[in-house]
Amino acid sequence: MVNPELTKRRIIVAYTVAIVADLLELPISALELTVIGAPVAMFLSFVLDAVVFGIMMFLLGFHWLFLPSFLVEVVPGLDMLPTWVGCVFFVVRQRKKEQNFNPVPAPKIIKEQNVIDI
């Protein structure tokens, strides 16, 4: 799978989605503390994280860091950490390095001259 080219717009949208998702986790996590709201909150948290995971895959392409971030967000209590923002930061940094990487050109092949090999 080829990763999409990073543009400023994709990066801004990815950060915006990550920030909104991490902010929405706060009231959902508070709802998880109540007995009545816990099942609904756990479901909402899972749906939110699945949607964010899909959006990040679309915007930034697949990266291995999306999987642990998704799993950490599903664990109650750990979802209070801004994992999506940190994940987007790391993935964008890695993708920029990959896009700016200029491979070393192959060495030029020198024509064989009349050389006596001993």
How much beta, percentage-wise?
under 5%
The succession of helices and strands, N to C, reads HHHH
Described by the principal axes of the CA atoms, the overall outline is elongated
How many helical stretches? 4
Uncertain segments are none
- What is the count of β-strands? 0
Q: First CA to last CA: what distance?
A: 50 Å
Helix content: 55-70%
Largest sheet: none
The whole-number mean of residue pLDDT values reads: 83
**Over the alpha carbons, how many angstroms does the gyration radius reach?**
23 Å
Q: Which secondary-structure class do the elements indicate?
A: mainly alpha
Topology:
Blueprint: H1 8-32, H2 38-60, H3 66-74, H4 83-100
Question: Which characteristics define this entry?
Answer:
single chain; 118 residues; mainly alpha; 4 helices
Q: Can you walk me through this structure?
A:
This protein is an all-alpha fold and 118 residues long. Helices cover 64% and strands 0% of the residues. Helix 1 runs antiparallel to helix 4 and helix 2 runs antiparallel to helix 3. The longest helix is centred in the first third of the chain and has 25 residues, at 8-32.
Short description:
With 118 residues, this protein is mostly helical.
